[in-house]
Design brief:
With 486 residues, the protein is an all-alpha fold. It has 15 helices and two strands. Helix 1 runs antiparallel to helix 10. Keywords: Membrane, Transmembrane, Transmembrane helix.
Length: 486
């Protein structure tokens, strides 16, 4: 049962690889990537507006907002398995012609969001004082951050519910609804922040606490919209299913470990920049913000790859999956070239516009050159990460990312701190990290082990899987849940 007015997405099970060219595959990638991009960008843009509005209340309030929002950001990022993992599982089922089962993955992911969210709220509530004290050097700032977080922490289950909603909707290629829900939620939060924090017209000034309530209101609208859409779309039982939840959690653990390795290495990179001086630290912060924008663009293509590759493998179309992988590499590399060239050509303007002080701007130019070099292989890594995530190959990505972080990035960062290489050393470390991951994912995609066909993701439980059997005559060995040998 579906009340969606969106056009029905294509199902790979009804198509043959021979009928689809590289241009058509690229068009399909961008048909998903373009609606996903504003969804990804909405939260950072809102945080920027929130920071500007609160910053006008005074430096203490801005610092408190920074501390509180950092806690939410770290927790929310760690839980991204609810979107990435659910996309992979739902896309396979959708490709196999089992849309109702694909939507049912969203039901189980929502139960996980509620359970994990409640646990996180309880934990943060108990540790709120020590957390804000450690993160803030000033007692007044810590107290204000705790006041903000005491309200905003209730948004964590809502953030996780929305992540689960994004996951199953991307899996079934329903893209308009998330865009509308995010626009409504972010719009409400922005209006609430702009009106109630400073107090406009007859509205009294509520200050920092209004920022927390505005956040919560927007998150409630988004989460509520995803729940309503799920109930309307899903015709079956809404009860939790233990086997499916355990399968989702197994993939989730792999993705959490992978994300943690990113966060740890980036935190060490910040300490290396701080050791090089205030100007280097400021330039590093600005470069990281710009890099975050770049990753949003690259991640939109990766998410499109997850959805399309998962659907192709779920339909048993091995050749289609490989064709998609090649198209992802081509389009991701092209996007990386555009970003690299733009960064090099506009490096002085970017540095001057972002940095308010000449010494910081000079350091930022160094970081921008490093960024322009690294974004080329990084673009391909993002795309192939999306391919392998769509295939459900999260365990391989977990292991190779941790190895690249521990054996590549961290040693260079430690040497940078010791020898004082500054931003040059940090971006050399980033380059080593990216190249190690590129080698790992390229080797994997060239092989066959990721080509597991059928509706069940690798390592999932038998419950919810299709009856074993050939789902396509496109290639030999297209048995559900089996690795293909073409």
């Amino acid at each position: 049962m579906s009340s969606s007015s969106e056009p029905s997405p294509r199902n790979p099970a009804t198509e043959t690889t021979a009928s689809i060219g590289v241009g058509e595959l690229g068009r399909r990638l961008w048909s998903i990537a373009l609606p996903v991009l504003p969804v990804l960008a909405a939260e950072p843009v809102y945080l920027l507006v929130d920071g500007i509005v609160v910053g006008r209340q005074g430096p203490e309030d801005l610092a408190a907002l920074g501390v509180g929002s950092l806690v939410l950001l770290v927790l929310g990022t760690q839980m991204n398995f609810l979107s990435y993992g659910t996309t992979a599982r739902a896309a396979r089922l959708h490709g196999a012609g089992r849309r109702s089962d694909a939507v049912a993955e969203g039901v189980q992911a929502t139960w996980i969001a509620l359970a994990v969210g409640a646990l996180v709220v309880a934990t943060v509530s108990v540790l709120m004082g020590p957390l804000t004290t450690v993160l803030a050097s000033d007692a007044e700032v810590a107290a204000r951050a705790a006041e903000w977080l005491r309200v905003a922490v209730w948004g964590i289950p809502l953030i996780l519910i929305a992540a689960a909603g994004h996951g199953w909707m991307r899996g079934v290629q329903r893209l308009r609804t998330p865009l509308v829900l995010v626009a409504a939620g972010i719009g409400l939060s922005t209006i609430g922040c702009v009106v109630f924090v400073p107090g406009l017209g007859p509205i009294p000034e509520f200050g920092l606490i209004a920022s927390a309530w505005a956040n919560l209101a927007g998150q409630f609208v988004m989460a509520g919209g995803f729940v309503v859409a799920l109930i309307i779309e899903h015709a079956g039982s809404l009860r939790p299913r233990r086997a499916v939840i355990l399968s989702q959690l197994r993939m989730g653990v792999d993705l959490i470990i992978r994300t943690a390795s990113f966060q740890i290495t980036f935190a060490v990179a910040t300490t290396a920049a701080a050791a090089a001086g205030v100007a280097s630290l400021g330039a590093h912060h600005l470069a990281q913000q710009l890099w975050a924008l770049y990753t949003l663009v690259l991640d939109s293509v990766a998410i499109a790859a997850q959805s399309l590759v998962g659907a192709a493998l779920g339909a048993g179309l091995a050749g289609h999956g490989r064709a998609l992988a090649r198209a992802v590499v081509l389009w991701s590399l092209g996007l990386g070239v555009v970003l690299a060239v733009a960064t090099v050509l506009l490096r002085d303007q970017l540095a001057g516009g972002l940095a308010g002080e000449a010494q910081v701007a000079d350091r930022l130019v160094v970081a921008l050159i490093g960024m322009a070099i690294v974004v080329l292989p990084a673009a391909v890594v993002f795309g192939l990460d999306g391919v392998l995530l769509g295939a459900g190959d999260a365990a391989y990505l977990r292991t190779t990312t941790v190895i690249a972080a521990l054996c590549g990035f961290l040693p260079v960062l430690l040497a940078t701190r010791h020898f004082g290489w500054g931003l040059v050393g940090i971006w050399w470390g980033m380059g080593v990290f990216v190249m190690m991951r590129l080698i790992a994912v390229a080797i994997r995609v060239r092989g066959d082990r990721w080509m597991v066909l059928g509706s069940a993701t690798p390592g999932s439980t038998p419950e919810g899987s299709a009856t074993p059997g050939s789902s396509s005559g496109e290639a030999a060995g297209t048995t559900n849940g089996k690795t293909v040998t073409e």
